[in-house]
């Protein structure tokens, strides 16, 4: 196993909404490379290049902010799953209910139809129809109409993945040791782990959460190129994290390479593409809570629409438009007030911290990546903590009550309210 030396990269750009005397301390981001030794890997230098490009793109598209990347080296991916996948935990049990069983030959989505339609309604039907050929589009008038087409294509993509072989004639997805090949397993392991904000990895990850069929994932290869996750043990961004997957750029399996070969994509841009198109995008989810969007202007880092199905095409659009996306801006601005509030709290300026949390609540768009109610609950909890420091216990209690109403799972808010009532 190669261990990379610890490398700390920092990016120092400040938001225009901060005056010089209010500079924000850098937020540290713990990063690791999880290696699957059965698949093509990357060098430490390659990782450095990816991170550098991601930082540059992130700054080009969002301006702002100050992060310190701390690289914790390379670890074997199977150890990560051995140590962090708690299969008996209720959280995993709940997730695995909606997990597509590998090698089962069909996707039985009908019992979950209502849930799936609710999920798809976050996007306009028109934007979803765009993923299909014209003759299919003519048959789709409702979200329900869309499902048979979506799942037929999804199942076909899954079957291909399950049967692909590498050059050494081994199956791409091992018949027995495949914990790291499941997206649902990643979701669970990232939830339980305590060490990393960003994981870079080279394994193949099948998109097997069949009740949340993201069109750009299931209609492409039914694999995951990157994702944001909940990691409640990670304090940097109040429990969000991200994974960047290198598989597609590193593999030599022709199925994934046909388009790139046709377009003669030069190999020397791979790391730049991974940094700009994949890593910076996932950072957009993790840091600014921007969801995958299908209706933002061209060049938006968070755009997941049909013209972006190919990484190379998407990358070229990003490069072509080095401008900030006006539709992403409200997410960024709202989140900056949150970071500012956290800083003020640390500096014991509780009055202004509470004001900034309130502003964040008002400014945050409702369709964030993740649960809006949980996020509002978190902000209420933080406002309550300010009020306790200011000795306004009555107000603090009302914030906590609101926090619990918004998210009955907010354990910290419950514990704090209970301790106040004693
Ligand atoms: Zn995304
Ligand atoms: Zn945008």
Oligomeric grouping of the chains: single chain
> What is the CA-atom radius of gyration, in angstroms?
22 Å
* Small-molecule components bound: zinc ion
What would the average pLDDT be, to the nearest integer? 90
Count of helical stretches: 18
- SSE succession: EEHEHHHHHHHEHEEHHHHHHHHH
Strand order of the largest sheet: 1-3-2-4-6-5
Tally the beta strands: 6
Task: Look at the helices and sheets and give the structural class.
Answer: alpha/beta
Number of domains: 2
Q: β content, as a range? A: 5-15%
Unreliable stretches, pLDDT < 50, 5 or more residues? Answer: 1-21
Helix content: 40-55%
Q: Tell me the overall shape.
A: globular
End-to-end C-alpha gap: 53 Å
Major sheet, described briefly? 6 strands, mixed
Textual characterization of the structure:
- The protein has two domains: 79-324, no CATH class; 330-421, Tetratricopeptide repeat domain (Serine Threonine Protein Phosphatase 5, Tetratricopeptide repeat).
- It has helices at 44-62, 77-84, 90-96, 113-120, 125-129, 134-137, 143-163, 183-192, 215-218, 247-250, 254-262, 270-288, 311-320, 329-346, 350-363, 372-389, 393-406, 411-421; strands at residues 7-12, 27-35, 66-76, 198-201, 226-230, 240-245.
- It has 18 helices and six strands.
- It has a six-stranded mixed beta sheet, sandwiched between helices.
- It is globular, with a radius of gyration of 22 Å.
- The longest helix has 21 residues, at 143-163.
- Helix 2 (77-84) packs across helix 8 and helix 14 (329-346) runs antiparallel to helix 15.
- It has 422 residues and is of the alpha/beta class.
- The model is unreliable at 1-21 (pLDDT under 50).
- One zinc ion binds at residues 293, 296, 300, 302, 325, 327-328.
